[in-house]
Write a structure and sequence with these properties.
two-stranded antiparallel ribbon, 123 residues, alpha+beta, 5 helices
Length: 123
């Protein structure tokens, strides 16, 4: 019985390690860049592209810019349509009437724009 439990624990641990390795390979294999930008896991491909662009800009501008990128990656903004909190550097910005709004996706941004057009037409 103890052997069975031992091998069950070993198999469970091996499956977890394998899952992490496969996830790491699917994300592109570069965990260092994700950690530097405060993204721990690197959830979205579009976010990874934005993160690499901001990391490149920070390296070109100097140490102060990298600190600003790290600070910006920690700020969360709230999507006005669905209410999801998104890291500011991953959000899709929209400047409307001098006010900056952030969205989690282009679908939410388009829905917001359509609703404001309907509101303006009706009232």
């Amino acid at each position: 019985m103890m052997r069975f439990l031992f091998w069950l624990v070993v198999a469970w641990w091996a499956a977890g390690v394998l899952r992490r390795v496969i996830g790491w390979m699917l994300r592109g294999g570069s965990g260092r860049e994700a950690v530097q930008n405060g993204r721990g896991g690197g959830e979205w491909a579009a976010g990874a592209e934005k993160a690499s662009e901001s990391a490149g800009a920070g390296a070109a501008a100097g140490v102060g810019a990298t600190a600003e990128n790290a600070q910006a990656s920690r700020r969360l903004v709230r999507d006005p349509v669905c209410g999801v909190h998104v890291a500011e550097f991953m959000a899709i910005p929209l400047r409307e009437n001098g006010e900056l709004k952030h969205f989690c996706s282009t679908a939410c941004r388009d829905q917001y724009l359509n609703e404001t057009k309907k509101f303006a037409a009706n009232g």
